[in-house]
Design goal:
The complex is a heterodimer of chains A (about 110) and B (about 110). Helices cover about 0% and strands about 60% of the residues of chain A. Chain A has about 110 residues and is mainly beta. In chain A, strands 2, 4, 5, 9, 10 and 11 form a six-stranded mixed β-sheet that branches. In chain A, strands 1-3-8-7-6 form a five-stranded antiparallel β-sheet, with no helix packed on it. Chain A is globular. In chain B, strands 2, 4, 5, 6, 9, 10 and 11 form a seven-stranded mixed β-sheet that branches. Chain B has a four-stranded antiparallel β-sheet with strand order 1-3-8-7, with no helix packed on it. The chains are: A mainly beta (about 110), B mainly beta (about 110). At the A-B interface, strand 4, strand 5, strand 9 and strand 10 of A face strand 4, strand 5, strand 9 and strand 10 of B.
């Protein structure tokens, strides 16, 4: 069964304390992996798409990487405004369906 | 540039009733997907519409149905509502149904079943 697992479920950081979030997947025929940020009461906001192992994408304090089994989202020197739930999702060679992980709730304290 | 818009933002229904949720895609997008998100969980795929046809469906019963209009907007209909249908319903739009383009989400409709 195609599955996406994120860890940890929750992460608490002090402002400036760098860390990483993990997204592991067991799927057949990965077409792309997507990272989203979701604030309370809002819809997911698109961050990155990764298509092949070895690919990296960066945006401000965030960097996403991809291997054949997992993706990491690195957060460098986080600020309180980075607090949100981070979701990863995979798209398979079967159309437009996204399979989401359960998310990592990140809290950054000043 | 207007993003994905959904209406209504909140809705309260009772068991057995029927509901219709609406979505307008981001400008330039022609494909709409619907997701259900329970509290504390990731979104679950319901179905996708492209060229006014259902192109792909997730593991949801026939009580869930949809429609896409010529202007690419879409509706999600749920019949015979159950308590377990209480969730945030998200609409996402993209350019093309293939899945290699990112999907952009609206802020959802919060549906509560009493």
């Amino acid at each position: 069964e195609d599955q996406v697992t994120q860890s940890p479920e929750a992460l608490r950081l002090q402002e400036g304390e760098s860390s990483s979030l993990n997204c592991s997947y067991t799927v057949s025929g990965l077409r792309g992996l997507f990272w989203y940020r979701q604030d309370p009461g809002k819809g997911p906001e698109f961050l990155f798409t990764l298509y092949s192992a070895g690919e990296e994408k960066e945006k401000e304090r965030l960097k996403a990487t991809l291997t054949k089994k997992e993706s990491f989202l690195y957060i460098t020197a986080p600020k309180p405004e980075d607090s949100a739930t981070y979701l990863c999702a995979v798209n398979l060679n079967q159309g437009g369906k996204l399979i989401f992980g359960q998310g990592t709730e990140l809290s950054v304290k000043p | 540039d207007a993003g994905v818009t959904q209406s209504p933002t909140h809705l309260i229904k009772t068991r057995g009733q029927q509901v219709t949720l609406r979505c307008s895609p981001k400008s330039g997008h022609d494909t709409v997907s619907w997701y259900q998100q329970a509290l504390g969980q990731g979104p679950q795929f319901i179905f996708q519409y492209y060229e006014e046809e259902e192109r792909q469906r997730g593991n949801f019963p026939d009580r869930f149905s949809g429609h896409q209009f010529p202007n690419y907007s879409s509706e999600l209909n749920v019949n015979a509502l159950l308590l377990g249908d209480s969730a945030l319903y998200l609409c996402a739009s993209s350019l093309g149904p293939g899945g290699n383009q990112p999907q952009h989400f609206g802020d959802g409709t919060r549906l509560s079943i009493l």
